[in-house]
Write a structure and sequence with these properties.
The complex is a heterodimer of chains A (93) and B (249). Chain A has 2 helices and 3 strands; from the N terminus they run E-E-H-E-H. With 93 residues, chain A is of the alpha+beta class. In chain A, 16% of the residues are buried. Chain A has a 3-stranded antiparallel β-sheet with strand order 2-1-3, with helices on one face. With 249 residues, chain B is an all-alpha fold. Chain B has one domain (8-243): Ferritin. Helices cover 62% and strands 0% of the residues of chain B. The chains are: A alpha+beta (93), B mainly alpha (249). The A-B interface holds A 1, 22-26, 28-29, 32-33, 35-37, 40 and B 37-40, 42-43, 46-47, 49, 136, 139-140, 143-144, 147.
Chain lengths: 93, 249
């Protein structure tokens, strides 16, 4: 038996999302079993199953260096606040 | 009172299909929690629910919009059922349950095909929906069987189960009450037993040529005699209903 990760996508512009995993002996049975286990109540219109062995996994710590770079976090709110203060300055001046 | 549009012979004919679907669905769903692995036990029960859905649509048609569907199903006397032996018999081993699922679903689409150009528009719609689902039921059964046949011990267990099930399938095909009128009225396009050679070739393509003796005609009872396993099965089906038969669900 192999482990497969199951992804579902709803109709329209939604992206594929991880739905869960499943154990199956072949690709075909993985699809068939995922269909009955994850889409019984019309949870999506498209499905991927991916053999977990085929997923490239990054090593531990590979992306940790990006955890503390506040200058990369542009949250919009701060920009909006700055622009508002500029507008206020203009109208007051 | 609205005059019934379906004759009693036609109702008998549809009832045989509805009862088969109902009991097959019930039998599959009873594997929830005990099938060989988690994914399969969910899948098998889910397929069983599809069969229950087919039964429910057929019962609704037979009862022509009556709200008494539950009462009709759960209060019937055993001799009023029209199910076949295949769906009534208690196949306790997994290989028997899987083999019955394979055999039944390889026969079921051939039955729905007969309704595709039915004189009754509702039946055309129901059969279209059912045929879409049946494609995946067959794929499920066949993919499992294909893999198990590669293992010699599994293969011998499946082949033994198959030999026990073939005679029951012959009865499924050949003894349907009301069939003559169903054909003459245009409800269905032909006799179900004419599809038996197609079913047999599916079986022999998958499992190899079987002993001709298995296909010898047996004495069919026109679905009026219940299998010994029917009583306990019916008991389980009615267990909750009988707690309060007047309850509205």
């Amino acid at each position: 038996m192999r482990i497969y990760e199951v992804f579902l996508k709803a109709d329209g512009k939604e992206e594929f999302r991880h739905a869960g995993s499943i154990e199956a002996p072949t690709d075909e049975l993985a699809l068939v079993l995922a269909r009955e286990n994850y889409t019984r109540r019309a949870e999506g219109t498209h499905m991927w199953v991916v053999d977990r062995e085929n997923i490239c996994v990054s090593e531990e710590g590979f992306i940790d260096a990006n955890l503390n770079k506040s200058h990369r976090h542009n949250d919009g709110e701060r920009v909006a606040e700055w622009r508002k203060s500029q507008r206020n300055k203009k109208s007051n001046g | 009172m609205v005059k019934s549009v379906l004759s009693s012979a036609i109702k008998e004919y549809l009832l045989a299909f509805a009862d088969d679907e109902h009991l097959m669905g019930q039998q599959h769903t009873e594997w929830i929690g005990i099938a060989p692995f988690l994914e399969e036990d969910m899948a098998f029960a889910s397929i069983g629910q599809d069969e229950l859905g087919h039964a429910s649509m057929l019962y609704a048609l037979i009862l022509e919009g009556s709200s008494e569907v539950d009462a009709f199903i759960f209060n019937r006397k055993p001799e009023e059922w029209r199910s076949c032996q295949l769906v009534e018999s208690n196949h306790q081993n997994w290989e028997e349950a899987l083999m019955r699922h394979w055999c039944y679903d390889m026969a079921e689409d051939l039955r729905w095909e007969l309704f595709r150009e039915s004189s009754l528009p509702e039946l055309v719609l129901i059969s279209e929906r059912a045929l879409k689902e049946e494609k995946y039921h067959r794929q499920h059964a066949d993919a499992l069987v294909e893999n198990l046949l590669k293992v010699s011990t599994s293969k011998s267990r499946l082949m033994k189960a198959l030999e026990g099930i073939v005679p029951e399938v012959l009865e499924l095909f050949s003894s349907i009450p009301g069939e003559t009128e169903a054909i003459s009225s245009g409800l269905v396009s032909g006799k179900y037993c004419d599809k038996l050679p197609t079913w047999r070739s599916r079986v022999e393509n998958r499992f190899g040529v079987l002993d001709q003796k298995l296909f010898a005609t047996s004495d069919h009872q026109a679905r009026t005699k219940r299998h010994l396993d029917f009583a306990p099965l019916y008991g389980r089906i009615r267990e909750v209903f009988l707690l309060d038969p007047k309850a509205v669900w």
